[in-house]
Amino acid sequence: MSVSLHRKLAIVVLILAFAGVVALEAFAREDNGKGKGKEKGKGLGVVKIDEDDIEALDLPSIEDAKDLPQMLVVGPKGKAKMIRAEVTALALASSTPPPPPPANGTSTDNSTSTASSTMPLPPPPPVTITLLTVKIWGISLMVDISSARRVPEGVEFKVGDKVNVLGSIDAVTGKITAKRIHNVTGRNRHNEDLLVKIRELLKKLNELQRKAGLPETQI
Are 161 and 97 contacting, i.e. CB atoms less than 8 angstroms apart? Predict the structure, then answer.
């Protein structure tokens, strides 16, 4: 075998060896990347979030949240966020304290009698919801909404409503003080209530217009 043939064979062997090393390195890099993906929890649907990102979390709009799954996030500084938690119980509290008892110690009923007239007592104070019990991922949590901003504004809550909550959680009791709460399923009910009130006002307006001989307002 000539020297030139030996040289050609040596070059071919070197090329094959180099190609094999490159292929092995690429395979190892790809396998390592898959392993890292598993470590990050991609296979489990777990998202790694930095501390600053957790504290910066905000609630999505009601329209965006209606298609989202349940979510519960608690940051290292106590910031809590819930998506589509279900209301399981309501707690009511009077918005104003009840009137004090009469000074003379006599009992009261629906009216106060005098020698000349009967004066009706003021109606009882309105009642507002200040505490909710919600359930999310099998966990029941108490949520204080007394100072929370409600979206839609003025919306009421019922058992079974789905709510989004943003606030802070007590590390000892687990009670959440809500800063903002969205009633996702109560939005349509709230809109329907507004439409009913608008129709009632329009009906009264039309009655006044008829009495005044004016054309009725049409919507």
Answer: no
Distance CA 51, CA 219 (A): 52
β-strands 118-120, 111-113: how paired? antiparallel
For residues 48 and 41, is the Cβ–Cβ distance under 8 A? yes
21 in Cβ contact with 43 (< 8 Å)? no
For residue 40, what are the CA distances in angstroms to 36, 44, 48? 6, 9, 7
The amino acid that residue 107 corresponds to is: S
pLDDT digits (tens, 9 = 90+) for 129-156: 789 999 999 999 999 999 999 888 777 8
Distance between CA atoms of 216 and 219, rounded to whole angstroms?
10
Nearest to residue 173, comparing CAs of 138, 131, 143? 143
Using DSSP's 3-state secondary structure scheme, residue 113 falls into strand
165 closest CA partner among 78, 46, 94, 84: 84
| Tens digits of residue pLDDT in 27-55 | 555 555 545 444 444 444 444 555 555 55
How far is it, in rounded angstroms, from Cα 54 to Cα 86? 22
Bridge partners for 143 per DSSP? 132, 176
**Torsions phi, psi of 19, nearest 5?**
-65, -40
